[in-house]
Amino acid sequence: HYEKAIADFDKAMTLQGAWFHHARAVAFYFANRREKALVEVNKSIQINPNYLKAYITRGVLLRKKGEYENAISNYAKAIELDPKFKEAHNACGYCYRKLGEYEKAIDEDTKAIQIDPSYKSEYRMRGRSYRLLYRYEDALADYNKGIELDPNCINTYTDRGDCYRWMVKYQNALDDYSKSIQIDSSYKSAYIRRGICYCLLGN
Q1: CA–CA gap between residue 66 and residue 59 (Å, rounded)
Q2: Dihedral of alpha carbons 105, 111, 114, 115, sign
Q3: Per-residue CA distances from 164 to 60, 81, 102 (Å)
Q4: How far, in Å, CA of 78 to CA of 191, rounded?
Q5: pLDDT value of residue 22
Q6: How far, in Å, CA of 19 to CA of 115, rounded?
């Protein structure tokens, strides 16, 4: 059985090589050397075509370059390897939103929520896509659910405020922006949005 043992050790060494290149890719990414990171993660996948984390890392690198379609392909491969990987669906949704494909973004966000109904940030992301499609009631339902799951998320209040502002419900928008400021008095974006609302109300 020694030959089989040697074969297994060889395989382990190969897989370890994939891990090593992926670790280097992550280090290069955080060192802001993204082209080097991409080279390393490509080597990792070449060694082990089923290395899920490497596809996610490559997806992130491509997304940072604005190559959203290529990023989606990598996230899709990660989902193929692990259909319950909610973060990959989240990442696909983000890229589809950047491409203006809001229905596809909603589909991905919905899949993430089906995997984990308590995935609080995903309701805000899906709500954003609904808002961009002018489906305001659907957006509000998601924002409300997000706030129910995380009552201190300033981004969800701000997003819901934006939705109310688009609906010309300025007082509701003001209330949400003010809530964001109450939670975090240094949240600059909420002050800007609240100022816009005051102007729209003639204040």
Answers
A1: 11
A2: negative
A3: 32, 40, 19
A4: 39
A5: 87
A6: 27
Confidence at residue 196, expressed as pLDDT on a 0 to 100 scale: 95
Find how far residue 70's CA is from the centre of its chain.
15
User: To which H or E segment does residue 194 belong?
Assistant: helix 188-200
Given a contact cutoff of 8 angstroms between Cβ atoms, the answer to whether 187 and 152 are in contact is: no
Calculate the CA dihedral of residues 16, 22, 27, 29 and round it to 10 degrees: 180
Could you tell me the pTM of the whole model? 0.86
Cα(158)–Cα(183) distance, rounded to whole angstroms?
A: 11
Residue-wise burial string across 70-80, b where 16 or more C-beta atoms lie within 10 A, e elsewhere: bbbbbbbbbbe
Please work out, in degrees rounded to the nearest 5, the angle formed at the alpha carbon of residue 98 by the alpha carbons of 118 and 144: 30
3-state secondary structure of 203: coil
Query: What is the residue whose two structure tokens read 């100022």?
Result: 195
Low-confidence ranges of the chain (pLDDT < 70): 1-3, 5-15
CB 44 within 8 A of CB 22: yes
**Cα–Cα distance between 197 and 89 in angstroms, integer?**
34
Contact 71, 99 (CB under 8 A): no
